[in-house]
Amino acid sequence: MALLARAFALAPKLRALAACTGCIHALADDLAQADAAVVDELRSRCAELWAACVGVLSRATGELDGLSACVVHAFNGTTATLVDAVCGILHVCLSVGDKAAVARAERKHAVFGKRGTWPVETADLFPSGAAVYVRFETPVQMRLLGDVLFVAHALVFPAVLRENDVLVGALVRRLNTAGDPESLHAALALIRGVSDAPDAVPDALLQLTLGNEEALFDAAMDALNATKDAPAGISDALAKFAAALFPRLEVLETNLDPRVRAHLTAGDSTLGLAGILYELFQEISTRKRVCVAPGCGASVSGRFVRCSDCGVAVYCSKSCQRRDWNRDSVVAHKVVCPLLRKIFAVADLSMSRYAFERAVVGAYQWSYPESETMAHFAISHDCLPMRFQVRAMQIHVAIWAVMGVPVNKFRAVLQNPEFRAAMHVMSRQENWAAGA
């Protein structure tokens, strides 16, 4: 229990900025090797340590100068050493053990609000906002940024986008040093935090990497080729990242790595409405902490409630649920819910997409107004990834044509530059996935 005693002794000193940087760095190193049970005890009993670490990140650089060294550490280190040390301590807090915030987020539990387990409230982790975590000069800083993105994506991602180009440059450098395991793990932790967090929007990775695809793709491929003997999970994560970037490259790659090709999805251009809805429901099922009520989008709070009738819509409160039900819209929940109940009376998400489509299409022949409602529902939901949104828009336009909607209404959609660009990306992705 010597580690616990040291943590308790150092916490008030660190909060007062009277601690030895060497001692804090040593604590960070030892915590990284500690058992999960020790970290659990610190999370429940020593909130002062974690709060002091957050406080260091919230201070201006000049305020951190001049910490005195102890008798053991003659050289006290630099401000950068101190920042790295507290980032390492917070990374352990958020990621180690089943009770850690990252583990709770993976299980779709409430990240905040668990009594006796730090962070108890959002304010514990973000007393000065999310921007203090947007640091990526070293691997441990990038790993901590990946952690906070994973547990509070809606709060942190906007701050990340404000540093987009600088962050992308740092990510390229980490991938280019794939021979250093710490750098590679840091890069993959950040990518995971951006794209796989339970409350991440589906195209968050697209938003982060837009305009920098070529540099990132080349770096990812270099890392993939340099890690042939790495565990399968690392190679798979790199291949998945490269596959997400590839369809947006301007230059064709003549010999695409089979590991990357395996992550390209074919068949989207012929997908029917039932298949689109299947993909949407699968996305929603992984994002159990995002309120779907219009104008809300809350994600960082306690447990969310799911509509007891359809089981699809998720809300942060009863008031949001009532607002979504009663709003004046073609996709108000009182309109959509009966149609969703019909779908889940004959199909469920344990089925393959093909089986789901067959079950739904075989059971129901939707009217054109019902089809339009469901297509509109899919398009309006921010859980639907870009390539499926494009296909849903195509279906929506086709339904309009059959219903006799004036041609100028859907001509504007077809001529929209973003729609046309998305169509180009989707067609390229399909050609390569099919082996073209």
From TrEMBL:
It comes from the Eukaryota. Keywords: Metal-binding, Signal, Zinc, Zinc-finger. It holds the Pfam family zf-MYND. Residues 293-337 form the MYND-type domain. This is MYND-type domain-containing protein. GO terms for molecular function: zinc ion binding. InterPro entries: Znf_MYND. Residues 1-18 form the signal peptide. It comes from Auricularia subglabra (strain TFB-10046 / SS5) (White-rot fungus). PROSITE patterns: ZF_MYND_2.
